[in-house]
Structures are given as structure tokens and as C-alpha cells.
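Internal tracking record. Fields below are filled automatically when a chain is submitted to the structure queue. Please do not edit lines marked as system-generated. If the sequence contains nonstandard residues, flag them in the REMARKS field before resubmitting.
Queue: standard
Priority: normal
Entity type: single polypeptide chain
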Amino acid sequence: MRKRPLVYGHRGARAELPENTMLAFERALEVGADALEMDVHMTRDGVVVVIHDKDGRRVANDAACVRDSAWSTVRRWRTGNAFVDAQGERPFAGDARFSVPAFEEVLEAFPGVLLNVDLKQVEPDMVPAFVRLVRGARAEDRVRIASFSTRNLARARHLGYAGETGLGGAEVLRLWATPLAALRRMPLDGTAAQVPLRQGPVDLTTPSFLAKCRALGVRVDYWTVDDPAVARDLFARGADGFITDDPRALAAAFPA
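SYSTEM-GENERATED OUTPUT FOLLOWS
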């Protein structure tokens, strides 16, 4: 019997500190997150870096694209600009403590922690570099590859990635729309449906959807869930985990 859901820090403890930074990841684990969720792109010189957007405009007031920039440039971006506190202020703008980490740094800093990594960049292809990096760190057993890009996921699977992969958007829709018997005959390749509560008109929280996922052995993690009451209701329905901006609140709702 499931005792509690898995709590993922969405881009770290994003409610408290600038997203996708080492301090945000540390804080998420400190306040009770079980796992870390993050996004990656690749620099012009082949370094996989942890940042959500394709450029630095939102987080660092720099319009340069990651894929067109050298790592020596991206690592100097101060990424506190996107954090807005309850008073509407930006207390971390320009703060040198908050910068873009290389994914390799994250792997080294958090041994044993499950990392759920959204491969954002499609062109140039970053999947081989990412797979090599994870394999080199012998971390395939704790790095789940996720992506909205079905192409990125297919690429990782084609390369023989031994770790888990999530389901892309098209795969989630197939999971929702296809009868269980047909899915058993032609199973999905991914192991995790990481989904919003709704996708357009489609309600992804229904008992029938969750039951189908359980029958297929597909875990269901919802994003972005910050309300403990909502999380408790979804867990009672059969959800496996929650990707949250506020891991402190969600972890407190499900004491170990």
C-alpha cells in the first residue's frame, strides 16, 4: 500500500528561491522534497546546463540563446531576476549566488537523489550528450528523462538509455484515449505520466484514467500542485507524486 506520494521540487524550491539553481535544489531537499525536477539545454560548446528557457531573457535579463552561447558566458548569468516575492519585489536580481549550473554539477552535488530532467532543447540534438553524461556518472538508475518532445524521448530510448523515461505529450494523449486492452497489446515505452490536472478539455484526474495507469504500471505525477488539500485529494484517488513549487507545504501534508 502506498504510504505517501513522491514530492518533487519543481525547479528546486521555486517558491522560496530562484529556480533551477544549486541553492534552490538544496533548499527543496532541506524542506522535505524526495526528488528534484529540472530543465536542461546545451551550450554552443556542448555543456548541458540547467535552465528552463531557451535564452536568459526572463531569468537573467540577457536575450542570448543558450544554444548560441559558450558555457563560459552562460555560467556568468545571474539568474535571480525571475524570482518575485510576496511584495512584488525581486530581492535576488543580480545576486551572484544564483547562476546557471552545469548538469554535471547537479549530478555530483546530490548523489542518491532522484532527478527528473526535462530535456527542452530539440535542435541541435542534445540527447546523445545528455545520455553520455548520465552514463559516465553511472546515474541512469536515478535520472528519469522527461520531455514535451516525443522526438527527444524516442532518441533517448533509441540510444538504449537504461533509466526511466516519461511520456511525451502525444504519448499521454494516446494513454488517455486508447482502450486498456489495446495498450496491453502495444504498450507505451515510457514509465511515467507527468501531467497537468487538465490538458485542454481533457481531465487527467478521473478515476478511469488513474485506474488505467495503475493497470499498466505507469506512475502518475501531477504538476504543478502547491495546494496540500488538492494533493491529498489526488493521492486518495491514486496519484503517485506531485511536482511542486512549494515542497515545504507538500512534504508537510504527507509526513513520513
